[in-house]
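Weekly puzzle thread! Below is a chain. First person to post its structure in token form gets bragging rights.
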Amino acid sequence: MTTIDETQSAESDGAIPPPPAPVRWWYLSLLQAVLVTAWSVFFYWLNRLPLQATDFWGHVAYGRWIHAQRVLPDADPFAPLLAANPLLDGAWLSQVVFAQAAARGGDEALSLLFATVVLASCLILARVFYLSSRSLFVAHLGVAVVCLLGWDRIATARPELFGMLCFSVLLWLLTGDRDEGQAQTPGDAATPRIRWEQWVGIPVLMMLWANLHESFVCGLFILACWFGGRLIDVACRGCSLRAILFDRMLRRRLWLLELGLVATCLNPYGVRLLLYVFWFADPAQRQQLIDWEPIELWGAGGRELLISLLVALFVFRRSRRRIPAADGLLLVVFSFALSGGLRMAWWYAAVFAVVVTPHVADLWQQWSAKLTGWMQTRSVPVPSFPGLSRLGLPAGRTWSYSAVALLLVWILFAVSPAGSTFVNGSPRPPEQLYGATTPWRLTQYLNDDPPQGPVFNPDEWGDWLTWKGPPGMWVFMTANMHLASSDVWIDYRIVRENRTGWSNVLDRYGVRTMVVDNRRQRTMRGYLAESPDWKIVYEDEAGTVFRRMERRPGRRNGG
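Winning reply:
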């Protein structure tokens, strides 16, 4: 009776605290709010990166042509000299997406699409790293490693970015198999959990990937290593042939590999696209591309590969976690891929981070435990920091952190180029939107005074000229140099490298206009400026336009 009286008295005095407010899924903690703000800053920075004069513009031009003609090109539609070899346009879907974005929002829409795709890829990778490490710090450390090793591929807009997004999603779909494969004994008859997201998501993803970019072969490598790694794990544990044949996880990975392979054939070219990706150009021509130059041990790419492998060996040696054979295969396969060219830097970086992050998380736990034990045995006081309540900040997850994070996200978007363009109607000036080497002023002159006949141009500007140049402009070379015949390729190099007879080559092709890159073609510019057969009609910091003068009787042709 006394208890009831005390309870009633406490209730009357208001001593019983009210029940805590329910925590909604969208309530954020202080750490989560900081991370949301950091990712928003990352998007803001990506959106401010200028669009460079690369093969990206040729892809946008292809997308515009495909949308207008409603067919896929079987030869380069902008450079008649590049029609010697058949064209299999494996990035047609990316090209159409880029062209439609440009048609609706101009080049600023392309910048927004670029920033969004890169941000989505990094966010998904962060999720992959977190699922394998259960540490926000290690997850974001993995993203930092990927950005550091593969920044040259990330910072430039190109259809390859869609391939990176698909690669990240595929790793996400396969993340659950890592812990399940380690926990299940090879040959175990227990039925693994059915993952419908894999059975449905992987075939659909691989089908889209095969139409977005030729890098879908990297996805096939992932699936093959996933299957091969399980096969090695089962075989190395002394299981019988019967156990190998009836291992359920092994069969599931084989079926996923087969489904992925079949799905990649669902493209306009079928299985021919897969063969084309492995052999698409003469090796001599392909090595002229910077992306396909083999890396050197102490050069760009080689240093990063060597240091990362040494780091992986150290981490594996100290970690208590078992190393699945699939992880070893992934690291070996993509290490060899990176040694073949800098183009594979991002793909290697993503695989490296996926393989290493679980072991880094284990080392982090070991070192934290050792540090705590060392401090306890020596009576070292643990550093203390003022609590959130002492700073006037609420503890735990609350709507106030969500509101502040949302406000900061909106502010960063509003001041970004995308917000300034599509909200305030103030797009960036060309000198900020495009890279320093982009000849946008030169292209404006060509549009005002269109050239007649073939135009000799550096290959790195050919794609830009097809997108921004006068309609029907006949460029000599683009990034699709692998489509040129050996004769055209040799002639292009004779002129580009100022070899003997370069002027005769121009005569043979009927070139009356020369576009010269002032930074990379200083010698050629000097020859043309001194030649009585050529006249400067336009010049700026980026490039110079020369027009052929009418020859007088008795004038000799130089070069």
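Puzzle host: Confirmed. Bonus trivia for everyone else. Strands lie at 454-456, 474-475, 513-517, 534-539, 543-548.
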